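**Folding the chain**
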Amino acid sequence: MSRAVICISCHELEEDYALKVTVETALEAGFDVIVGYDNFIPFTHADILRRYPKDRVHVVVTMTRGIGNNRNMLAHKAIEFGYDVFIQSDCHVAFIVKETPLQISNNVFEHFPVEGKALLNARAIEPVAFKYIGTVHDRHDIRKIRFIGRESKWIYFHGEPVFAVETKILRRIADLQSGFIYLLPGYGYEVTDIMLTISRLGYRFDVNRSLVYAHRINKGHEDRWSRRWDREQLMMFHANMYIYSIKHGFTSPVYYKEIEEKFKDRIAIARYVNEFLPLSAQRIFDLMEKDIKEGNIVVFG
C-alpha cells in the first residue's frame, strides 16, 4: 500500500482552531502530516503541534516568504521523507473518511465550503452539504472560473486546496523546472499551475470518493486575510499570474517592471517548460471540452 502524507501549508496569522482541526482530522484519516510555514511558527501554533507524535507530525519552516515557496518546500519534504503520494492541503480543512481502506494516487476529492468555526462541526454538516469537485478557469480569461460537479469521473486540473499526486511525478517536475516543484512563489494559481503541468505531462486526476473534506473559506475581510496583503504579497500575486500565463501560453498583462526583474529566473524557466511539455494547455482544454460533452466532466455555474 502506498505511503501518503498530507502536507499542510500554514502561516503565522492562521487561527489556532483551524490548524488543530486540519492536523487532527488528517491523523484520524490515517495519514502522516508535514506542516510548513513560510515565515515563522507562532507560539500558539507551536503549543498545539508539540502535542502530536513526532514520527507522525513533522514541522518545517521555509524562511522565504510566499505560499508557493512554502508549498514547494513541502513537496520536496514529501519526497525526501520517502512518501509515495503527496497530498496538498490548506491549514483550514477538515478531512472526513467515507470508505476504508483509503487507496490514494493521482486524485481529487469532493468537498464543501464552510464559514468560520463551522469547520469544527464539519462531520455533522457533511451529510447535507452541497459538494463539488473543483473549479477550472476559462481558457480565454484565467480570472473567470467554472465549477466542476461531483458527478465527474476525473479532472485535468483545478484551483482547489486539496489534491493528491504520486511523488515520482513531482520528481519529474523538479527535474524539468531547475529544482522547483512549485514554480510560482506566492498565493494565486500556484495550485492550478502544478496540476496543469501534471496534466500536460499526460496524467489526469481521478475523483476519489473515499475521502471528503470541508474547506473554510475566506471572504477577504477577515483579519487573518487582510493583514497579509502588504506590497510584497500583492507583488507575488501578480508575479504568480504572470509566470503562470507565460508557462501555459495564456494572455496576461505585465503589471509592473519589477516583476520581470525580481522573478526573471522563474520567468525563464516558465518559457522553457512551455516549449518542453509534451501537451499544450490548449490541448488540455480541448480534451476537457470533449469530456464535458461526453458527460465525463460535469460543469455548472
User: Anything to note?
Assistant: Residues 109 and 209 are 6 Å apart (CA to CA). The mean pLDDT is 93. The first strand starts at residue 4 and ends at 10.
